[in-house]
Amino acid sequence: MFSLRACLVVSAALLATGVYGVVARRNIIIVLLSVEVMLNGAALAFAAFGRQWLGAAGHAGQVVVLLTMAVAAAEAGVGLALLLAFERHRRCVDSDDARTLRG
Amino acid sequence: MTHYPIEAQLHWIVLAPLLGFALIGLAGARLGRGAVSLLGPAAPGVAFVYALDALQALRGAPEATVLAEPLWSWLDLGALSVSVGLRVDALAATLALVVTGVGFLIHVYSVGYMGHEPDGSYARYFAFLNLFTFAMLVLVLADNLVVFFVGWEGVGLCSYLLIGFWYRDLANSDAGRKAFVVNRVGDLAFVLGMFVAWRAFGTLDFARLNQEAHDDGGLATLCTLLFFIGATGKSAQLPLHVWLPDAMAGPTPVSALIHAATMVTAGVYMIGRLGGLYAVAPATLAVVAWVGCLTALYAGWVALAQRDIKKVLAWSTISQLGTMFVAMGVGAYASGLFHLVTHAFFKATLFLGAGAVIHGLAGEQDLGRMGGLARRMPVTALCTLLGALALAGVPPLSGFFSKDAILFAVGVSSVPGRSALCLLAWSAAALTGLYVARMMTLAFLGAPRSAAAAHAHEPRGTMAFALLVLAALAAAGGALGLPEAVAHGADRLGAFLAPGWAGAGHGPAAGAGGHAGLLEAERALMLRSGLLGVSVLAVGVLACTAWGGALEALFEADPGLAALRRAALGRFYVDEVYGAAVVRPLVAGSRLLWRVVDVGLVDAVVNGLARLVGLAAVALRPLQGGLLRGYAALLAAATVLLVVWAARGWFR
Amino acid sequence: MTAADLSFLAAAAAMVGGAALAVTRRSAVYAALSVVVSFMGVGVAYFLLAAEFLGIAQVFIYAGAIIVLFLFVIMLLDLRRGVPDLVRGNDRPFHLPALLLALAVFLLAALPATVCPGEWPPLAPDDGFGSTGGLGRAVYSGHTLAFEVVGLVLLAAVVGSVAVAGARPPREAPPGGA
User: Fold this and answer.
1) C115, part of any domain
2) Alpha-helical segments (H) within B306-377
3) Which A residues 37-76 touch C at CB under 8 Å?
């Protein structure tokens, strides 16, 4: 039951859910959250492959997960900063509102 | 006879007016009026001095010497190699002196005549005039057909620019365009002629063309005929003469320089330049003689009816050019060139005199509103009279000798239809006297017929100076080429020119022969033509004064005569025929092409393409709508597709 | 059905359920809290996959720090106006295409699972796989460069965030233009 196969299915489900969130939602906060979900799906797959292969290759998978977390933190920081700047300007967090070329 | 070119420095003859053009043309009104007035005439003046220098060199050298200055190689394409070089022989030196000399005087005259122009257009005028002098000198000094053609087109350009000089008036710029377009017809033939010459003789060099000319398979006849069509355009012969009368829209000094003295004689000069080639094509020469003769007669008739003083002179110019072509056609090259030179003198005088009249009458050109000017403008009247008498062929003025030489050459030539040609040439000469008498009488005799004529004033300063000098030349120019019949060795111009065509000419005039019988015949002919000139002139003056009423009654009584007069006034409707036969079908055809091909086909294709792009843009626009979710969806979809494509082997 | 199986089932339910709730909530606060549930599940999965350090880090950094950052921002915005104002209108429904796309992504990503082994290899009891020490050795021996680069990315993100979020709002132009 609990196996690489199951982990990959769950990982794919997380990724697909994230994609849905990014494409369907207009609230930029939720879009950013969906990106985090996608990143977690990918990270889970790495960790599962690491468990399957063990040894140095397995550790490499875990290192990638670790680095993904760091990058996700950076992405969240920058994304939220941009969100704040955008909101200050347009008084909303609707991505459909970010369509005009002039500020 | 072989020509031995001698290396010489000739480029300053051409460069001086070019420098003048560049200076005046680039600096324009910023130079100031005084500087333009000095620089403008100085350019042809300097060229004149250098041309005199070349003449001295030629006179000191043996007969048929050629001064040459190779400049640079222009084209080198396989067998075709065109070099740019200047070349002065007796013929070119004569023409160069006329161009620069008469040109200098007319520049001087223009300083006064154009004095009322604003600074900008004053400078523009002199820039164009200098450019014209440059182009004409390139034409004269060219050593091959291609360089010659550069000058040929250059003078055409300047003619266009100066006819339309007062371009704010639509009629003037229309006249300029007409001259340009009609000349292009001739130029096309000229270019074709160059192709044929290249094909037939493998060279475009004047010296080699003249020496190696032969008429295998009629190619020489063909190419000389094509060249002559070019000449009918440039020199306003039938049937391409229609532009010259309209060219009178330009300033009068321009008419004097370009449309009487120099540019329009380029066709005559061209035949002289290619004398050796024309000599092997007698059929072409006959055509030249007959076209010239018919033009002379036709233009004389039209001149008789014109009311505009400049139009009379314009038609007279066409007629005189026809006379020159008659001379070229019967092989009397030297006589034709002699007439070219004297015509430059007396026609320039006449035009400058007419310019003085127009200037003095504040722009009035209608002969019907002149009259009695001899009292108000005695100097102008005297100068114009000298020019007019020379034109009418009254001895001993210049035109008498040159026209006489041509009539004599026609009489002793072997051209087909000689008797008829002779008769027509004499008739044309008689007509000349008539229209000259009419013009002079209407303008200068009788009572003033308008307020302007009553208050006319004499030209002063530079205008008077140029007019007097040219009148003197018109009177005494005949001394250059007194016939052998007057004194042995008197035909100095002929003796100077003739060796250049040695072996080419076949008329007696070219050989400057001295047979006693011919001399006797020439003396008799001079007597008759002198008498004819004087008597026709007298008849003309009487017809316009004493017999005027009777003549008028005659014209009114006979509808045929009245119709003839209307036809002559209307130039025998040649322009109308061209309008119906050429211009209207062309316009209709263009309209058809515009409506059907351009709008229906070309525009439709272009507009269709544009509409297609527009539709595609409309279809694709949502992709770039700035919608973040749209971009994300595209990104995801593209990623899916990419992964599927990358893993396609796995699915198989 | 072993204990590991049961734990994984629960974790999977938390992961997928939390994520599904997160992307469908109207309120950003609920979405963020649902994401916490999902990330907790991921953390449990890491423990089950013998990655203790990752599990701890997942809980502390992701479910802790990052989501708290989100909540801070949400509260910052909510201080100024109510939740509904944050998104204007409800035009341009994108749900169906998004669902189709998500399905395609899921199928494609789950496809490799069909050829994966159904059993884990046994763990050697004392080789320290996934322990803090083992992972630390792996990071500092084989992946130093990647680690340093990520450090640089973090630095750039910090500077960038301060620069973007700390920028003064543009002064309102006076009516009629300057």
Assistant:
1) no
2) 309-329, 333-360, 373-376
3) 37, 40-41, 43-44, 47-48, 50-52, 54-56, 58-60, 62-63, 65-67, 69-76
C101 touches chain A (CB under 8 A): yes
Confidence tier at B506 by pLDDT (50, 70, 90): very low
What is the residue extent of each domain of chain A? 4-94
> What's the mean pLDDT when you consider all of chain B?
85
Is B646 near chain A, with CB under 8 Å? Answer: no
Which chains form contacts with chain B, at 3 or more CB pairs under 8 Å? Answer: A, C
Q: Quote the pLDDT of residue B510.
A: 39
pLDDT (average), residues B303-309: 86
Count interface pairs A-B at CB distance under 8 A.
Answer: 26
pLDDT of residue C87: 64
Residues B329 and B364 in one domain: yes
Pair of tokens at residue B515: 């047979």
Give the ipTM.
0.92
What one-character-per-residue DSSP string does chain C give? --HHHHHHHHHHHHHHHHHHHHHH-SSHHHHHHHHHHHHHHHHHHHHHTT-HHHHHHIIIIIIIIIHHHHHHHHHHHHTTS-GGGGS----S--HHHHHHHHHHHHHHHHGGGGGS-SSPPPPPTTS-TTSHHHHHHHHHHH-HHHHHHHHHHHHHHHHHHHHHHTSPPPPPPPTT--
The total number of structural domains that make up chain C: 2
Hey, how many other C-beta atoms are within 10 angstroms of the C-beta on B625?
12
Both structure tokens of B243: 């532009």
Residue C11 lies in a domain: yes
**Contact (CB<8Å) C19/A13:** yes
* Residues C119-144: tens digit of each pLDDT: 888 888 777 888 888 899 999 988 99
Topology classification of domain A4-94: Helix Hairpins (1.10.287)
Tell me the per-residue pLDDT of B59-78, one tens digit each, with 9 for 90 and over: 887 777 788 888 888 888 87
- Domains held by chain B: number: 4
With CB atoms and an 8 Å threshold, state whether A22 touches B627. no
In total, the C-beta contacts within 8 angstroms joining chain B to chain C are 18
Scanning every residue of chain B, which has its alpha carbon at the shortest distance from the alpha carbon of A38?
B636
**How many angstroms separate the CA of residue A77 from the nearest CA in chain C?**
6
User: Do residue C25 and residue C79 come from a single domain?
Assistant: yes
Give the residue numbers spanning the domain of C136.
129-165
Closest partner CB to A70 (pick from C50, C112, C154):
C154
CB contact under 8 A, C123 and A44: no
Q: Please compute the mean of the pLDDT values over residues B467-487 and round it to a whole number.
A: 82
Residues in C touching A78 (Cβ below 8 Å): 157, 160-161, 164
Is the CB of A22 less than 8 angstroms away from the CB of B626? no
3-state secondary structure of B262: coil
Residue of B nearest to C106 (CA): B640
DSSP SS3 for B102: helix
Q: Averaged over B528-549, what is the pLDDT?
A: 79
Task: Give yes or no for residue B503 having a pLDDT over 60.
Answer: no
Beta bridge partners of B308: B366
Claim to verify: residue C79 and residue C136 sit in the same structural domain: no
Contact A54 C129 (CB under 8 A): yes
Q: Which residues of B touch A98 (CB under 8 A)?
A: 626, 628
Give pLDDT, residue B573: 81
Interatomic CA distance for residues C42 and C63, integer angstroms: 10
Show which of C25, C55, C83 is a domain's final residue.
Answer: C83
User: Which pLDDT belongs to residue B379?
Assistant: 87
Tens-digit pLDDT profile for residues B572-620? 788 888 888 888 888 999 999 888 888 888 999 999 999 999 999 898 8
Q: Do A23 and B633 touch (CB under 8 A)?
A: yes
Q: Which of B375-379, B485-489, B638-642 has the highest mean pLDDT?
A: B638-642
Identify the domain containing residue B231 by its residue range.
168-274
| Chains A & C: contacts with CB separation below 8 Å | 278
Q: Which of residues 53-72 of C touch A (CB under 8 A)?
A: 53-54, 57-58, 61-62, 65-66, 69-70
SS3 B420: helix
